[in-house]
Amino acid sequence: MGSANKTLVIVPTYNERDNLPPMAQRLLALHVPVDLLVVDDNSPDGTGKIADELAAKHPTIHVLHRSEKNGLGRAYCAGFAWALARDYEFIMEMDGDFSHNPDDIPKFVEAAQNADLVLGSRYCNGIRVINWPLRRLLLSTSAARYVQIITGMPFTDPTGGFKCFRRHALQSIDLDTVRSNGYSFQIEMTHKIWRQGMKVAEVPIIFTDRFQGSSKMSGKIVREALWMVWSLWIQNGLRRSPRAPSKTKCEHCESKA
Length: 257
Ligand SMILES: Nc1nc2c(ncn2[C@@H]2O[C@H](COP(=O)(O)OP(=O)(O)OP(=O)(O)O)[C@@H](O)[C@H]2O)c(=O)[nH]1
Ligand SMILES: [Mg+2]
Fold this sequence. Notes:
This protein has helices at residues 20-28, 47-57, 72-84, 105-112, 134-151, 167-171, 183-194, 219-235; strands at residues 7-13, 35-40, 61-65, 90-93, 117-121, 129-130, 163-166, 200-204, 207-208. The chain has eight helices and nine strands.
């Protein structure tokens, strides 16, 4: 199957009807050409229908409909499988609520020329988070430290969801074995790539929390992440380093990574 562009941006959506059209416009206007895949879990607000209308107008926009809300991790895995069945080389994760700035996409693609996975980091060289209450920021930075200590992964922002995978990095993972769904989904995907000795780069991003709607952060998401990192450490043979020599790289904050 052919595809027009080498880069696919996967945006999972659940009730994003107001955000999706402006997001699509921003992606269409990028100087690096990208395809967009919307993975919609039958949003009650009709986001899926809006996505279909956009796809009918623009050949670079695609939609994957899923029958019910099943979490971010499952939506992304479906999107990854869709991408791997086509020719995409750079496969990105991005939120659909403008927490992630689509204008950062070219920066990821550039860094991915020389890496297997690129992570957007809110915390390398300072803290760049807008509109988060202090307790949410503390939870996120403590989670990052916890992940670093237990797994040995040196990344400054392991729970972030703005990422770019190279095709072969995704192909190296059995997507059916990825179980986690909340923030630990991000940690699990990165760990599965890093522990093979693949090259992981970080690029700095500014994260802006949605100004409308309430946070989905819950005790369940935190608990899932708490045990997941121990499970990853066990999967890695109790190692805190990759099995193969690490090629970890932080483009902009080399000293910290
Ligand atoms: N397909 C699908 N998309 C989802 C699901 N849950 C969240 N999303 C989308 O995933 C992206 C990130 O989810 P958010 O709800 O913003 O999660 P968050 O940023 O951790 O939490 P907030 O503080 O609420 O913004 C958004 O584009 C959501 O619409 C889901 O179960 N299925
Ligand atoms: Mg959000």
